[in-house]
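New to this. Help decode both lines:
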Amino acid sequence: MVPVSKPYILLSDTSPEEGSSVWLRCGLENGTGPLYFLWEHETNSGVVETVSQGNSSMFNMTVVNRNNTGWYRCVAQNKVNQERSDRIWMDVIYGPDVPQIDVTPYTITDRGYSAVERQTVSLLCQALSNPPSQYVWFYNNSQVYTGPQFTITRILRMHTGTYACLAQNTYLNTRSMKTISLTVYYPPEGSPSCSVLPAMNSSSLNLTCSWTGGLPSPSLHWTRDLLTLTEEWLKPRDEGAWPAKYVSVLQSGSQTSNNTLFTCLGTHPALNTTTQCTARAWFPSGDPVCSAYANGNNQYLLLSCSWEGGSPRAVVWWEGPKGEGRGQEVDTSNILVYRSNSTQNGKAYTCYAKHPLDTLTRTCKLTLEAPVLLTQRSMVSVFEGSDVQLTCILQANYPPADQIVWLNNRRQEVVQEVQEALATRKYVLRRAAAWANLTVLQTDGKTDSGQYWCSANNSVGGTEIPVTLLVKRYPMPPNVTLVRLVYRSRQRLQVELEWQIKGEGEGGEGGGLTGFILERRLSTALGRRGEGEDDTTTAPAEQQELLDEKRSSSSPWQQVAVLGAVERAHTMGNMTPTDTYQIRITAVNHRTLGHPSPPKTPADPPFNAYPAVIGAAIGGMLIAAIATILLFMYIIRNRNNNPRLHDMLFGMSHSQSRENINFPDDEVVGGADREGGATEHSPSPSQGPSMPSPRAALPESPSPQAALPESPSPQAALPESASPVSPPPPAEDNEPVNVTITVTATG
């Protein structure tokens, strides 16, 4: 017998599609029969099982499924031996199956999966397939991702919708899809809102709690006065409305104490904590308040009633004289509208107010009245130039008038002038709610006298009252005359003038004198300068005609000064010396001007020689004194040149003079003089030396030495044995001589 050789396997399809048929054949090269065949299947997990055995070398699988995937071997044996073939891999192609979607974190509701806003959500898609599937994610039918796992970080409410996973087998070109619904939960904004409203004709409290928004709806319920240890739950009106966005309960007003606190608790799946809101029921203070006002043009009258404060708000309504407004209850305030007319003057209206915590109904009333005006004086008189105030007082009116209006004496409304016109304004208007004062500035008798009107209007009527203004003129002041009008100096730069008044004027109330107005103008002088025009009344007819012609050509009058009433003299400056002026003065009594004085031309001042004479005399004396002093100084310094003049002036004044001779040869004694032929001019009472000139002898005149006291001669002091010094030889008259002279004068 021949043993079996190593078998080999023939496979009809190594990658069959699930559901198809496949055969396997175990082939041998050698082997004596009878032969026996065994087929083994090894799975991916390493489990080996026998799937077929027998004397047939063929193994048929009519319907292949994914479980048939794995390794296959055949074992051939006979009576001699057995051999095992090499394994062969058969890969069954299938899928994809319907995908399986896993949501993390996992929360399922009756509408699908849910997630809390701002969480991270992961969607995992798995579908069995060989080869493995390729996955595509769709959000609301729009492709958003490719891959088996789709992750959304910080999911938002906008991500709520349907998510679909598409699995594809590219080998078989087959696909499958699964869709889920994902809802993103988010809490409502803020916190619950609580309110307390009146109910059942303001006899009960309607507690409402709302918390809008969020998904799903929050859960709400009421509890009263959480400050206490016990929590009393209030039953909602509708059991099915909890949880809901709105919860309402009724509470009896009479059984609720003032200042009771109610609390509404709210919960939501997206929140880890409980939120709440509170509402307090309290009684309003005071009483209801009534008022009336009109629209802009007083076309409609509006009656307002309110009772501010409290929670819930009080309910108010009006009731008129004929019952109008009854049953029209509104919260807090109520406005009743009427068309304005005078028939409502004097009628009363009542406002009613009710609060759930108050068992009584409160009221307030008002009565409509047309304006009533008063004035302090219906007749006002004032002197012109003064300011006067006209008063108007609003005594009674309801509703209040818009404003009090003043009309001037021309029936024109007086309005408050703008700031730019303050310097030229005529009226000043000051007013408040109940009065208005009109001040007329700088009154004038012609334009401001007359009747002024004060008027006021409201929605139920109007009225006006007249005020008469009489502007009186101040009496005429007395006449004034210039009595002196003279230039102050020949330079004609200033004019001194004096005047006098005549009479008392018109006198009476406001009479008197308040000042003077001084005026001047340029004019052509007539006749001799300094003659006034008031002298022309005695001029001939030709001169008067010429004067009138000159007056018509004169320049206009210019006001120079305004002087006080007590002044009677004035000095006018700033005159032009070459011009000729006319000057006049006018008396003034406040704003009333008197008759101007006759114009005059200033006269030149009279000539006065006394100051000139005195000045000339003083000047001559000063000049003579200076000349005398200069002459004395000249004579003293030039004594030798004018000895006679010197002796004449100083010989009689007992002045002493001494001549110091610097050289001995200049000394001469009385004998030597005589020997030199000198002539003795005058006898001396004593034997004293004479003082001859070294030049020619002086003419005969009293010698100054004669006035000197007797003194021993220098020669007498010499000793007798000493011979006198011989005189020097005579010199020429032109020979210079050095002489030192000392003069002492005593008075």
The first strand starts at residue 8 and ends at 11. Residues 610-637 form the longest helix (28 residues). Confidence is low (pLDDT under 50) at residues 226-242, 525-539, 652-737.
